[in-house]
Amino acid sequence: MVSTSGPIQLPADHAPSSGAMVDPFGRAITYLRVSVTDRCDFRCVYCMAEDMTFLPKRDLLTLEELERLCTVFIDKGVRKLRLTGGEPLVRRGVMQLIERLGDHVKAGRLDELTLTTNGSQLHRFAADLVAAGVRRINVSLDTLDADKFAKITRWGRLPQVLNGIEAARSAGLAIKINAVALKQVNEHEIESMLEWAHGEGYDFTLIETMPLGEVDEDRTDQYLPLSTVRARLEERFTLTDIAYKTGGPARYVEVAETGGRLGFITPMTHNFCESCNRVRLTCTGTLFMCLGQEDAADLRAPLRASEGNELVSAAIDEAIGRKPKGHDFVIGRNAAPSVSRHMSTTGG
Ligand code: SAM
Ligand code: SF4
After folding, report:
1. Whose CA is nearest to atom 20 of ligand 1?
2. Average pLDDT score, the chain
3. pLDDT digits (tens, 9 = 90+) for 63-79
4. Whose CA is nearest to atom 14 of ligand 1?
């Protein structure tokens, strides 16, 4: 179990600035992740059951409402915005939202607009993303073996994703490859993926599986602690901790042999909650103050109740005032998921 007790140490770059949203533990909220849809064209085994029930379309915020909510957050001090899902690029008309949000980057009101994608639609959207002001993207890719890829994603096809990544690079996007470390699935491929990613000029980040939502498999069989992965990598590579940060939870090392950066996202083995600067908005307008807790605030009702933003702004302040100190993820045989909703609902 990850402990969340003990005093919070605030890193210098998370010190609250005046006028910002600040939670009860003194953490300034400057990073908003928005799940623009819970739907996806893949069914990754650790993320979704194959037979998922998605939200009825009538419950979704329109793209205009999502943009209005994002703008309220930007007005309240958010500087970095990540679109995610489900698969963000399968929501119809999503480019319209991305273009409008990109205007905030161009006007200097937002430092970064980025997205996390499975890469399946990048061949269609890469150039438009760059034109809209997106500079960096995260692409989730757990294996370079086509058969394994089809098994992990159930519905995905590797060549389509590799074409998409290539299109993104050609369009000028900086790319980070994110891989979930999965016991017996990709654990022996991590070294070759690292060499491939760095050889192509991409950052590479490993993620521990988190107990979110019911999936068809036992998570104890999937979970691979990154402390084990790091120890194995250190038998072959020289890893040096570096201070590099992208505003997210990854801790980075430089790999001497490849000259590239390797990130570790370790919600299970090393809690990163003390420096948490983010909140998550779903496509129904629900605000989750922590990925690993059930508490949430409804922003759709106050958004729709008035044409002005006072009500929704007050609801956001009230929600930030309830942001918990951290998560308590547990993975064990027969353990229920720590939170019942899937990663695709809250957005990874
Ligand atoms: N569909 C997009 C994608 O796959 O990049 C964006 C949404 S997906 C939910 C975001 C990230 O969450 C992906 O990198 C995925 O591998 C990761 N993810 C999903 N379920 C997870 C889980 N239970 N534990 C850890 N990471 C998970
Ligand atoms: Fe879809 Fe991303 Fe979940 Fe895979 S991890 S099922 S691509 S939302």
Report:
1. 47
2. 89
3. 999 999 999 999 999 99
4. 140
Model confidence pLDDT, tens digit, residues 257-289: 999 999 999 877 666 788 889 999 999 999 999
Domain assignment of residue 305, given as a range = 17-346
Residue whose entry in the numeric block shows the structure tokens 């949430």: 296
CB 118 within 8 A of CB 140: yes
Ligand nearest to the CA of 180: 1
Q: How large is the C-alpha radius of gyration of the chain?
A: 19
Which parts of the chain fold into alpha helices (H)?
A: 63-75, 94-106, 122-132, 146-153, 158-171, 190-200, 219-222, 226-233, 300-305, 310-320, 343-346
Per DSSP, the residues of 230-283 read HHHHTTTS-EEEE----SSS-EEEEETTTTEEEEEE-TTTS--GGG--EEEE-T
Which of the two residues, 11 and 162, has the higher pLDDT score?
A: 162
Residue 209 inside a domain? The answer is yes
pLDDT for the residue 242: 97
- CA-nearest residue for atom 11, ligand 1, is 348
Q: Is residue 3 part of a domain?
A: no
What's the token pair of residue 31? 């990073």
Q: How many angstroms separate the alpha carbon of residue 85 from the centre of ligand 1? A: 8
Residue nearest to atom 12 of ligand 1 (CA): 348
Q: Rounded to whole angstroms, how far apart are CA atoms 223 and 297?
A: 30
User: How many distinct structural domains can be found in the chain?
Assistant: 1
Query: Residue 202's domain is classified under what CATH number?
Result: 3.20.20.70
Assigned domain for 188 exists: yes
Which residues are CB-contacts of 18 (< 8 A; sequence separation ≥ 6)? none
Choosing from 39, 180, 224, 278 the residue with most ligand 1 atoms within 8 A of its CB, the one to mutate for a pocket test is 180
For the segment 203-241, what is each residue's pLDDT rounded down to a tens digit? Answer: 999 998 887 667 777 666 788 999 999 999 999 999 999
